[in-house]
Design a protein that fits this description.
This protein is α+β, with helices and mostly antiparallel strands. It has two domains: 77 residues, Arc Repressor Mutant, subunit A (Orthogonal Bundle), CATH 1.10.10; 181 residues, Chorismate lyase (3-Layer(aba) Sandwich), CATH 3.40.1410.10. The strands form three sheets. Strands 4-5-6-9-8-7 form a six-stranded antiparallel β-sheet. Strands 10-3-11 form a three-stranded mixed β-sheet. Strands 1-2 form a two-stranded antiparallel sheet. The longest helix has 15 residues. The radius of gyration is 22 Å and the shape is elongated.
Length: 270
């Protein structure tokens, strides 16, 4: 429940009234007074408590819904959403390793694991010969504590990992297999990001509504001598993940998933 001590808004303050109300609700979520699944007071109750118009209340709530902090149930009210996951862009990441480090259980549902001939696009990205060189294609739904977060389609040149197609990629980390079995250590990666609407087929695997907001991420990873050894296309649920970048004079690129509220509480959010 929203703290009653926060019941006065500054009508002539620098910040608009709706922005002040969003700030109060955000603080209550951050400190845990409002927990995931909690129902907010009705619009009428918020109007009376803060002495503001219903238009102002609706503007504040809509802003928080659009941020993913709240969600609405038709005829039932407005509720606190589950915290999103932060995806830091600071270094080459391993989904499995990051999840375990956070005390979460990573798992994968393998949709495809087969050998194909390199297409023109794959050949350009992985420095191969189209129609001649082979690649191992691996498509997985990546889950944390059984919640699907993203779909990854990965292409690995066949010649650098010829038996990869036989590995148990439902429970093993791809990078762990490449490192331990094939002595391949990633040096750096180049990623591109695009905002998308998740398609009907992908939404089925990600257990979200078709046309939900998402991210499309393309990653090309390299070993020390700049040889490309991995191309991965990912479709990520934007309702469950944020992308956060650390900018500095000198920095590598790293990504990991962190529970949003935990990170805020520990001061880890940039």
């Amino acid at each position: 429940m929203i703290d009653k001590s926060e019941g006065i808004l500054e009508e002539n303050g620098i910040l608009p009234l709706y922005h002040q109300l969003t700030g109060i609700i955000k603080r209550e979520i951050k400190i845990g007074s409002l927990k995931p699944g909690d129902k907010l007071p009705s619009e009428k109750e918020l109007c009376e408590k803060y002495r503001i118009s219903r238009t102002t209340v609706r503007q504040a709530l809509l802003s928080l819904v659009n941020e993913g902090l709240l969600y609405r149930k038709q005829g039932k009210g407005t509720f606190v959403a589950r915290p999103k996951l932060l995806r830091d862009l600071i270094e080459v990441y391993s989904f499995s390793t990051d999840m375990r480090n956070l005390g979460l259980n990573p798992s994968s549902d393998v949709l495809e694991q087969k050998i194909i001939l390199a297409t023109e696009d794959l050949a350009r990205s992985l420095d191969l010969e189209a129609g001649k060189d082979k690649v191992t294609k691996l498509t997985r739904v990546r889950l944390a504590n059984n919640e699907p977060l993203l779909i990854e389609t990965t292409y690995i040149p066949y010649n650098i990992a010829p038996s990869l197609v036989k590995e148990d990629m439902g429970s093993n980390s791809l990078y762990a297999v490449l490192s331990k079995k094939y002595k391949l250590s990633l040096s750096h990666a180049v990623e591109t990001y695009e905002a998308i609407s998740i398609g009907k087929r992908e939404a089925k695997f990600l257990k979200c509504k078709p046309s939900s907001p998402g991210f499309f991420i393309e990653r090309i990873a390299y070993i020390e001598d700049n040889t490309p050894i991995e191309l991965t296309d990912s479709i990520v649920r934007a309702d469950r993940c944020k992308l956060v970048a650390l900018l500095g004079r000198k920095s590598s690129v790293r990504r990991k998933l962190i529970p949003d509220q935990d990170a805020l509480a520990k001061g880890q959010v940039i």
